[in-house]
TrEMBL record:
<feature type="domain" description="Schlafen AlbA-2">
    <location>
        <begin position="31"/>
        <end position="161"/>
    </location>
</feature>
<keyword id="KW-0238">DNA-binding</keyword>
<dbReference type="InterPro" id="IPR038461">
    <property type="entry name" value="Schlafen_AlbA_2_dom_sf"/>
</dbReference>
<dbReference type="GO" id="GO:0003677">
    <property type="term" value="F:DNA binding"/>
</dbReference>
<dbReference type="InterPro" id="IPR007421">
    <property type="entry name" value="Schlafen_AlbA_2_dom"/>
</dbReference>
<dbReference type="Pfam" id="PF04326">
    <property type="entry name" value="SLFN_AlbA_2"/>
</dbReference>
<protein>
    <submittedName>
        <fullName>Putative DNA-binding domain-containing protein</fullName>
    </submittedName>
</protein>
Length: 343
């Protein structure tokens, strides 16, 4: 993983301050294939219109070698000789504040297939002066598209990818991009019993056009609760397998989860549901959901939209461990009770 923020700005993304970016533009800088500067400009419309340019830049970097997008940079001025834009001086910050997770979700949801390896720092100086520094890893799932167009970084600019380039990207895909989602179908109280239930459907997709996946193992875990097709009341997990998953087809699996009212109350009626999955050629991912059973509609079992209060879908295990600061050393220390390679 390349820390583009550290290479370009001299600090890791998590250590950046507003002043660091302002100081960076005391000197003149140009764009390259791994860095793009986006000023917030009223001539480009409102926040909704401005963010489209940011998403295009992220899409281009995913399809190229990764890089850094600074949103709130100075307005670029074209060099009279080379016509290349140079960036120096006062910042053009974004007047609207958005939380880091909101921005990551907005970018990810706008790009297909769903990207990983996007990190964001939100830097503030006053209520209406916001900088967004976005670090993008080169994607193993390229090519990606935004607004039905494949973008790429060429000659320091984000441009629609030529046809030959898209074909080359498809040939370079190293493993299928499978994604898993969970939908709550029904929830309520079992007739004549002091047990609650929740019916769910698990969806598995393969979004890689030129590769099928096989030997997929999916594990479902719930806390609290147990699956009704298991014999043990305490069995809160189950596995199922998919032999093959073809591009363009969806695999569905339905399950019913039962809940003891006392267990629900002990957890504040909050349910944590985890779906993990991996295939023969694809890396392990997880989708995690928080469900609030206090919002169940006992009068209409199919009215479940309000129950899902938090979700984080299709996150690579490696990315989740990175967020948690998990390393080889810490894993072995926790498992072995000693420093690796030492007694």
């Amino acid at each position: 993983m390349t820390e583009f923020s550290k290479v370009i700005l001299g600090k890791s993304l998590q250590d950046l301050q507003y002043k660091d970016v302002a100081d960076f533009f005391i000197n003149e800088h140009g764009e390259s294939n791994t860095i793009e500067f986006k000023a917030f400009s009223a001539t480009h419309g409102n926040f909704k219109e401005n963010i489209k340019g940011v998403i295009r830049a992220v899409c281009g970097m995913l399809n190229s070698d990764g890089g850094l997008v600074i949103w709130g940079a100075p307005l670029g001025v074209a060099d009279p000789v080379t016509k290349e834009k140079k960036f120096i001086g006062a910042l053009a910050p974004v007047p609207e504040y958005k939380e880091k997770d909101w921005l990551i979700n907005k970018i990810s949801d706008s790009i297909s297939p769903l990207p990983t390896g996007i990190r964001v720092a939100v830097l503030q100086q006053g209520a209406n002066e916001n900088l967004y520094v976005i670090e993008v890893e080169s994607s193993p799932y390229k090519p990606h598209q935004f607004d039905n167009t494949y973008f790429v970084r060429l000659d320091g600019q984000t441009k629609p990818a030529p046809h030959y380039f898209i074909e080359a990207l498809f040939r370079r895909i190293s493993y299928p991009n499978i994604e898993g989602y969970v939908k709550i179908d029904r929830a309520g109280l079992l007739t004549g019993q002091s047990l609650y239930y929740m019916d769910i459907t698990c969806f598995m997709f393969n979004f890689t056009q030129m590769q099928n996946e096989e030997d997929i193992t999916v594990r479902l875990m719930t806390d609290p609760g147990y699956f009704d097709d298991t014999s043990e009341f305490t069995n809160n997990s189950k596995n199922y397998e998919i032999s093959k998953l073809h591009f363009g087809l969806v695999n569905t699996h339905r399950a019913r989860i039962l809940f003891d009212p006392y267990q629900l109350d002990a957890k504040g009626k909050k349910i944590r549901f985890i779906m993990t999955y991996t295939g023969k050629h694809s890396p392990a991912k997880s989708s995690i959901y928080t469900i609030d059973f206090a919002r169940v509609d006992l009068g209409n079992a199919a009215n479940t939209g309000q129950m899902l209060v938090q979700m984080e879908e299709n996150v690579l295990f490696s990315e989740r461990q990175e967020r948690l600061g998990t390393t080889r050393e810490s894993t072995l220390q926790a498992s072995l009770g000693r420093t690796p390679d030492k007694f």
